Amino acid sequence: MLKTIVIDDEPNARQVVKNIIELYCSTAEVIGEAENVETGVKIINKLNPDLVLLDIKMPDGTGFDILKKVKNVNFHFIFITAYEQYAIKAIKQSALDYIVKPINTNELIAAIEKAQLTNLKETDQISKIETLSHNQGSNPNDMRIVLNTQDSIYVVKVNKIISCKADKNYTEVNINGSKMLIISKTLKEFEEMLAGCGFFRTHQSHLINIKYISHYEKGLGGTIVMKDSSRIPVSSRKKDLFLQVMSKI
After folding, report:
1. So what's the pLDDT on residue 222?
2. 233, exposed or middle or buried, with CB in 10 Å at 0-12, 13-18, 19+?
3. Rounded to whole angstroms, what are the CA distances from 164 to 5, 11, 125?
4. How many Å apart are CA 228 and CA 115, to the nearest integer?
5. Domains 2-121 and 140-247 share a fold
6. What class does CATH assign to 2-121?
7. What is the mean pLDDT of each run of 10 residues along the chain (249 residues)?
8. Which DSSP string do the residues of 68-121 spell out, in sequence order?
């Protein structure tokens, strides 16, 4: 059984989560609940759960603060949040799990089942939490992103990413001075995670870091030559917008 703690400042929200787990998650059991950061940290340290479901916004802080303050993050955790773009972007950059309010029963069940099937490695958790903490308040040039491959977890500086290329439901990430990483995320997800960090979607299948542009070869849409000599196409419908971006470099 997954010993589970629910942390949310709204009693009704906690009750919804508890009801779903009781009715549909036979391998999880709620052993405690808390209403804020202070009580959340205390109950986690006391009960040593396997899984924590925690809201992001609370009266005395955030779910992020709880993870910073507990003694050991030797448990799975899933953020529960209202749709706040800044928070979700930070969570995605750190490769952490979340569900959005109002809570969808199937999404919560799937998230709990995923936690049950995932091998918990404390070092992985620490890397993800450190990335989340680092990115809070960092300027775009200093952001980091956690990338999961089939075999490893990488913490990568965003300004080291040269380009991303779509490959069906996967994305090839070209990192300066490193090998190409194949990540099980769509290019759209990368575009959202890297928004505001100097990236431009040149084509349905390509996302580039503007700082690595070497030069542009004119044509119907044209071709961008990157500083590592890779060649990236520009779709005809993106050409004018790209040229506007180029004029500001």
Report:
1. 95
2. middle
3. 38, 43, 25
4. 39
5. no
6. alpha beta
7. 96 96 96 98 97 94 93 92 81 92 95 88 80 85 92 94 96 94 96 94 97 94 96 96 90
8. HHSS---SEEEEEE---HHHHHHHHHTT-EEEESSPPHHHHHHHHHHHHHSPP-
Characterize 206-224 residue by residue with b for buried, 16 or more Cβ atoms within 10 angstroms of its Cβ, and e for exposed: bbbbeebbeebeeeebbeb
Whole-number pLDDT of residue 123: 62
Whether the bond between 102 and the residue before it is cis, its omega within 30 degrees of 0, is yes
Please report the pLDDT score of residue 124 as a whole number: 81
3-class secondary structure, 163: strand
- Within the chain, where are the H helices? 11-24, 37-47, 63-69, 85-93, 105-117, 122-135, 187-193, 239-247
- State the CATH architecture for 140-247: Beta Barrel (2.40)
Q: What are the angstrom distances between the C-alpha of 141 and each of 12, 57, 165, 193? A: 41, 27, 21, 14
What residue spans define the domains of the chain? Answer: 2-121, 140-247
How far apart (Å, rounded) are the C-alpha atoms in residues 91 and 98? 8
The three-state secondary structure class of 199 is strand
d(CA 197, CA 209): 8
Residue 147 identity (one-letter amino acid): L
Q: What phi and psi, each to the nearest 5 degrees, are found at residue 117?
A: -90, -15
Q: What is the pLDDT at residue 122?
A: 63
Residue 18 identity (one-letter amino acid): K
